Inverse folding.
């Protein structure tokens, strides 16, 4: 199984609130997407984390906008006046990650879209598992759309891959839940632990890692993502928010 692939047909506008300068782009399937570029400062590993984490969360029942691969010919940005964007498009020729654009959504700020105690605890457990440090009140990386909560921007998770720290080290890495938007739900996390851990089977991990295109990953890396995520799953007392089970 692989992610669907579409082709970019029009660069609409840059999303300047995103540090990696994602753009709103139209595809040849007439869809509108937020395009995250492999040529951005964070590099293709941020896109690898987006796929593995986003697709894992989706399969565990959370709302994540659809992800597709998008072929980019930088010529579609030729009328874009900003030199920085021209350069980003040139560096990003080829495959990039397209996130389904949620029109009219707004950033979660606590005023709407709260998923309830169990929902908050579920998100906290999962962010702790994948070491996602990018879900604070400063930048919640969650959108409210049609009154529901949608999770975006998982590019900073799985940060072991930047230096390839060992699986043992990643497994033992604590998680600072105090900075998380849903830190108040920490006491409800241990009650969900067995259910979530049991749902993350070896087959599920293999499946989501398998969705990353060969352009951004080699087979040795696929094995490493698998071993790191498995080791962390088996060592939950090191990072579980809300204390011992
Ligand atoms: N699917 C989407 N639909 C609508 N708006 C979106 C979507 N994805 C992202 N955005 C908007 O674009 C902003 C930047 O997106 P995102 O957080 O994915 O980019 P980033 O460059 O990784 O950002 P950061 O600065 O958090 O690292 C979001 O905060 C949100 O306002
Ligand atoms: Mg963001």
């Amino acid at each position: 199984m692989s992610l669907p692939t579409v082709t970019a047909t029009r660069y609409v506008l840059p999303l300047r609130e995103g540090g990696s300068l994602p753009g709103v782009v139209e595809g040849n399937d007439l869809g509108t997407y937020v395009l995250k570029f492999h040529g951005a400062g964070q590099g293709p590993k941020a896109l690898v984390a987006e796929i593995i984490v986003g697709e894992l969360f989706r399969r565990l029942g959370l709302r994540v906008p659809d992800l597709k691969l998008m072929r980019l010919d930088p010529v579609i940005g030729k009328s874009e006046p900003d030199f920085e964007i021209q350069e980003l498009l040139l560096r990003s020729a080829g495959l990039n990650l397209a996130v389904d654009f949620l029109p009219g959504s707004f950033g979660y700020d606590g005023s709407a879209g709260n998923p309830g105690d169990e929902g908050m605890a579920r998100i906290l457990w999962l962010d702790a598992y994948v070491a996602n440090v990018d879900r604070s009140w400063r930048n919640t990386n969650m959108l409210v759309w049609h009154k529901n909560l949608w999770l975006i921007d998982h590019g900073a998770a799985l940060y072991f891959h930047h230096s390839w720290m060992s699986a043992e080290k990643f497994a033992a890495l604590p998680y600072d839940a105090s900075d998380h938007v849903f830190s108040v739900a920490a006491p409800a996390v241990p009650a969900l632990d067995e259910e979530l851990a049991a749902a993350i089977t070896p087959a599920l991990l293999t499946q989501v890692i398998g969705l990353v295109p060969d352009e951004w990953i080699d087979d040795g890396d696929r094995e490493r993502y698998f071993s790191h995520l498995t080791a962390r799953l088996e060592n939950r007392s090191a990072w579980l928010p809300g204390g011992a089970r």
About this structure: Residues 18, 139, 141, 153 surround magnesium ion (ligand 2) (CB under 6 Å). The helical segments are 44-59, 83-91, 116-129, 160-163, 167-172, 190-199, 202-209, 219-233.
